[in-house]
Amino acid sequence: MGFFTRTAMDALMKTSHPEINRRQCWNLHPHRKPCTTCKDICPYGEEIFTRPNLVKDWDPCTDCGLCVSACRSGCIAPSPEQVQRDTAAADSDNDTIWIGCEKSTRKNTVVRSCICALSWEALAYLALNKKIVLDLTPCGQCENDLCAEQLRKELTRLVDFFGQPMFEARFSLAYEEKEYPYHVQELTRREMLEQVSHGSKSGTKKLLQMLPGLRSEEDSGVDFRLLLHQRTKQLKAAMETPLQYGYYMPKFTDNCFGCGRCEKACRANALKFEEMPNGQTRMVLTPWKCSECGVCMNVCSNKGFDGMKLYQLTTLGPVVLHKCTKTLCKQCGKPIAPDSAEGLCSVCRIKARTQKRQEEARQRAEQLKAERAAKAAEEAAKAAENAAEATAETAAEAAVKTAETAATALPDTIPAGQSATPANVAAPSLEAPRSE
């Protein structure tokens, strides 16, 4: 492929605005209150978002990245340009990165519309390469409470990720305009050299080559976490005693029996169930894919989770969180709870009950049909008997009527003591009358 062809394809495929994967949105999963964080924090929310996960027009978008950092489920993916813009400072020659908003009077290294426009993953990646100074001078006069709340969430999350000593060593907060905030704890010389000088430029440039717009759907929205994962791997390979990072992951309980509903609900493909040779099933989570949204816990109906727990990790690679032995349904073979009644899953149990009811209904219908047939036969026999009796009565009445009719037709001159027989009855004359 030629240079001009590649340039033209990149220009067509790249977009400066974020991308939305609607299948991963929090609002498409069971919840009590709809999430409108991205629409609320965006300066042009009403003009851009029809609904929180549906965009009607990207033209007003200023590519600030506030919606990317505020999205709780990671369904809003940063554009490749935003990733390169937010992480480019890691390749600079300076040992310290100054980050501030557009209202600051300092000449900061990284200037954004708001500091919270950089997600905590992007800030963590930068902190693993350089020391970070956050210019919070204009924050006291800022009227946007949503941005201030988002910034507090990100800083709290960074403290959980690095730990208090490491956070104080890598981050500094400047509240006053003339304050020079280098009063924090310093790392050892070995840790500083390993974190600052170990392949940051080559590693970042190599990773950025993976983000030209050719991302698969399942990898969308995880660019900053992917960079953070790669950086933690580099540090782990370079250090004798690797650093540990705090990452929130779902905590499984003994009630989990491996039904797989949480795996299907995870749109980021961070949670996988793997079958082991010994018959057990293990739950494997990939932290750098997990956005800590908690959808997996909401879809569980058997209390298989006990909230989100802070784990200490050396890298953000796959982690085994739980193991269990599956109990399978007798009919369909799907996983069921060990104490399930009749050894059937809920679907097969409902089917069995339905079949039982249908069989009972069929037997009742056959019995009712037999009773109706017997009753109909009895009624038919009775009707035939009544018809026979009615016929006999009719014949007798007809005979009596005939006799009465014949008796009425006999002459009155029959002598007494003689019966009205045909011999005594004068036959009518057949001779023609004579003429006189």
From TrEMBL:
It comes from the Bacteria. Coiled coil: none annotated. Gene3D superfamilies: 3.30.70.20. Pfam families: Fer4_7. Residues 383-409 have a biased composition (Low complexity). Residues 381-436 are annotated as: Disordered. Residues 52-81, 247-276, 281-310 form the 4Fe-4S ferredoxin-type domain. This is 4Fe-4S dicluster domain-containing protein. It comes from Faecalibacterium tardum. The lineage of its organism: Bacteria, Bacillati, Bacillota, Clostridia, Eubacteriales.
